[in-house]
Specification:
The complex is a heterodimer.
Chain A lengths: L1 H15 L7 E5 L2 H11 L3 E5 L14 H8 L3 E4 L9 H7 L12 E3 L32 H18 L4 H25 L7 E4 L5 H7 L2 E5 L10 H13 L4 E5 L5 H10 L3 E4 L12 H16 L1
Helix pairs in contact in A: 2-5, 5-6, 6-10, 8-9
Chain B lengths: L1 H16 L1 H4 L8 E13 L22 E4 L2 E8 L4 E12 L2 E13 L6 E9 L20 H7 L4 E10 L5 E9 L10 H4 L2 E12 L3 E18 L3 E3 L2 E22 L9 E20 L5 E21 L2 E12 L6 H6 L10 E12 L2 E11 L5 E13 L7
Antiparallel strand pairs in B: 1-2, 1-3, 1-18, 3-4, 4-5, 5-6, 6-7, 7-8, 8-9, 9-10, 10-12, 11-12, 12-13, 13-14, 14-15, 15-16, 16-17, 17-18
Classes of the chains: A alpha/beta, B mainly beta.
């Protein structure tokens, strides 16, 4: 046992004396935040996304590789609002890394930086997987992305003050390009205003809020619960009286329910990327919105 | 008992009056959750349960027949401040007609040491093996693998201190040591002034592509045991209690592999898990209460393993298969004493095959059916169980 202690201690000292690594290690819970970190941090950051567009960010396990990543992270960027409640607190607790704990500068919660929609007045588990802090899928509104980018820039400067000018410059550059792109997207998305769309899960609330789209119904009978045949029938009835123009579906959701409803109602299904990497063309935040708006407007033509 | 019940009542009141905020994690109030577990069991064989070659203790049993409640657990946890995290788990179970409240876990853990180091102190599930530090209701089968039943009385819980360290490497590597009291089964006597047992464990893990993840663990536990007792034998009017004194060493290896297409476990996923443990014991066994005192030297070698596979073939539905096998090779100066103590393997190799099917309506509820062809002792048995496990309150952790 004493030998073990000695070995541990020496190993420990060795690691402690390593010079601070040049790049800031960023652990993003979702790909959109890794992409934003790259926009603002450029060469000064090395970002890793814990999930891909193919994975449901609600349903991730605190697996060994993620603990190892959090152990070495300088900054966690997550959606928050309880989206990662099943796995992130566990990672934070197990990694033994003090700088990324809740309340520390190394923990950045994107949803906390913006106003959230769908904040429930009362909450009960019979309502399904609802989040007390509101809908966490905030990245699908470019206006909110702009606000979050500003807050993230401030955070990067706090953690890595040496890079202050660099982050300021990159933020300015990003904001300019983002504002231009937003104008363009709004122009392209004009025909979508007032349309009714069926969603799988309420991940689209923020996009629809921005573009003036109405949710015509959700394939999940309650948030987080799988579709049932009975629910599809009642959805069909709703859609007969108040039709919708399309059904949107993302890559991490089972396509069967969307296809089935489409067969029953003749309403087309659109596969949307949802986040960076959800479509070959959606390589970063800019192309994510390019693709999303192109696909949505494509159905109307 | 009365105080216990009042305590239980108060806890339940706290829990229910707090469900509205419990859904919101990270609030000032602690996370509170209550797990309800109810069962129906049926056996084809009514003889007394035993596991030839193993002295049973702790919670080792094959469960009860008919309708009964299982482990109903109340868990309260929170970050205490920026330095500590704390957790209490109380299990409320019915045992021989009496309601028992058992303190399963009560520990604090450091948050702010840094450099991958964490201290844990109090009563906790040991981190040896893969299943040991998980709550029974998050196991994939209703009961513990036979080797856990035989060696640890289902689960190794002790009071003490744990120090662990996570390496700053891409490959997950965690090393930990535990020093504990050693009073509870399978230790006993709280020897060395209440520092009777210790453990070391190492875990490695990582991903292979986006669809696969794995973990491999090694562990070792040892204790100076004084007066570990096992099931009471009524024998010719006198009550004789098999008692072990001596050294006990357990070594184990555990492995878990998980697969989900593109890492999205929501639709389909597969989990393969196996553990092997062996125990070496050296000391004496006596039948306390016998007159004259019957005693024997004892050199015990026991080992066992299980392999299980769980497949979620569509959302909500999982099927699973588990195979268990044990082996005991115990020796001593008086074979009759060992036989009385249940340490004679009686020429039998305990084994068991179990299949299960479960349905989880949401993350918070699960209904399970389980059938086992149980040859863990000479009288072959068919065990059938139906179980529900539901969780009220705080969102549980998706542990690996």
């Amino acid at each position: 046992m004493r030998m073990l202690f000695r070995f541990l201690f020496m190993f420990f000292m060795l690691i402690m004396t390593f010079p601070a690594m040049a790049a800031l290690n960023i652990f993003a819970c979702e790909p959109e935040w890794a992409s934003l970190a790259n926009e603002l941090g450029g060469e000064r950051v090395k970002s890793y996304s814990a999930t891909t567009a193919f994975q449901d960010p609600h349903h991730i396990e605190a697996r060994p590789s993620l603990i190892a990543k959090v152990r070495r992270a300088d900054l966690l960027i997550c959606s928050g609002a309880e989206l990662e409640v099943g796995w992130l607190p566990m990672l934070q607790r197990q990694a033994g890394n003090t700088s990324i704990l809740p309340g520390k500068q190394g923990y950045f919660e994107a949803a906390a930086m913006v106003e959230r929609l769908d904040v429930p007045v009362e909450i009960d588990r019979s309502m399904g997987d609802v989040h007390a802090s509101g809908n966490p899928h905030v990245h699908l509104d470019p206006r909110r992305i702009q606000t979050i980018a500003k807050a993230l820039k401030i955070r990067l400067v706090t953690i890595d003050p040496e890079g202050s000018d660099y982050y300021q410059q990159r933020f300015k550059d990003f904001s300019q390009r983002w504002q231009q792109a937003m104008q363009q997207w709004q122009q392209q998305a004009k025909p979508l205003k007032g349309t009714r769309i069926v969603v799988h899960h309420r991940d689209w609330v923020y996009l629809f809020d921005w573009l003036g789209i109405e949710i015509a119904g959700a394939l999940e009978p309650k948030p987080g619960l799988p579709t049932t045949a009975g629910h599809l029938v009642s959805l069909k009835q709703t859609l007969t009286s108040k039709p919708a123009s399309m059904i949107v579906h993302t890559i991490y959701q089972n396509p069967r329910a969307a296809k089935r409803l489409s067969q029953m109602t003749n309403i087309p299904v659109v596969d949307l990327p949802y986040t960076v990497g959800g479509d070959i063309a959606a390589k970063d935040l800019f192309s994510l919105f390019d693709v999303t708006i192109k696909k949505l407007t494509g159905v109307l033509q | 008992m009365k105080t216990k019940m009042t305590f239980f009542g108060a806890m339940v009141f706290v829990c229910f009056s707090s469900t509205s905020f419990a859904a919101k994690q990270g609030s000032f109030n602690p996370d509170i959750s209550l797990t309800l577990d109810g069962r129906y069991g049926s056996y084809s064989n009514n003889s007394d349960y035993e596991l030839p070659g193993f002295m049973l203790g702790g919670e080792a049993s094959r469960g009860e027949q008919g309708f009964h409640i299982g482990h109903n657990e109340l868990v309260i946890s929170a970050n205490i401040d920026d330095m500590f995290y704390g957790k209490v788990t109380t299990a409320i179970a019915e045992h021989e007609g009496e309601t028992e409240v058992e303190l399963e876990e009560a520990f604090i853990e450091t948050l702010a040491i840094g450099n991958g180091v964490t201290f844990k102190a109090g009563r906790f599930f040991s981190d040896i093996g893969y299943l040991n530090n998980q709550h029974g209701h998050s196991w994939d089968f209703m009961d513990a693998p036979l080797i856990y039943r035989g060696l640890f009385g289902n689960q190794l819980i002790d009071d003490g201190l744990q120090i662990s360290w996570v390496a700053p490497t891409d490959l997950y590597f965690k090393l930990g040591i535990e020093a504990t009291r050693g009073e509870r089964f399978p230790a006993g006597g709280a020897t060395n002034d209440g520092k009777g047992a210790s453990a070391v464990f190492a875990k490695f893990g990582g991903d292979v592509g986006v669809s696969h993840a794995w973990q491999l663990g090694f562990s070792h536990w040892n204790a100076d045991v004084e007066g570990r007792t096992s099931g009471v034998h009524a024998h010719g009017g006198a009550t004789e209690i098999p008692t072990f004194n001596g050294d006990s060493k357990v070594s184990g290896i555990d492995f878990v592999w998980k697969w989900a297409p593109n890492g999205n476990s929501r639709e389909r996923n597969l989990k393969i898990q196996a553990e092997y443990f062996e125990r070496d014991e050296d000391g004496t066994v006596e039948l306390a209460g016998s007159s004259p005192l019957e005693t024997s030297t004892y050199q015990g070698e026991q080992s066992g393993w299980y392999l299980q596979t769980i497949y979620q073939f569509m959302p909500r539905w999982r099927i699973g298969y588990r195979y268990d096998r044990l082996n005991a090779d115990n020796m001593g100066s008086d074979a009759l004493v060992l036989e009385e103590a249940g340490l004679d393997d009686e020429g039998h190799t305990p084994e068991r095959s179990t299949i299960m099917l479960d349905y989880s309506h949401s993350e918070y509820s699960r209904i399970r059916m389980q059938y086992a062809k149980d040859d863990s002792y000479e009288d072959s048995d068919n065990l059938f169980f139906i179980q529900y496990i539901v969780t009220l309150g705080a969102h549980g952790a998706h542990r690996f």
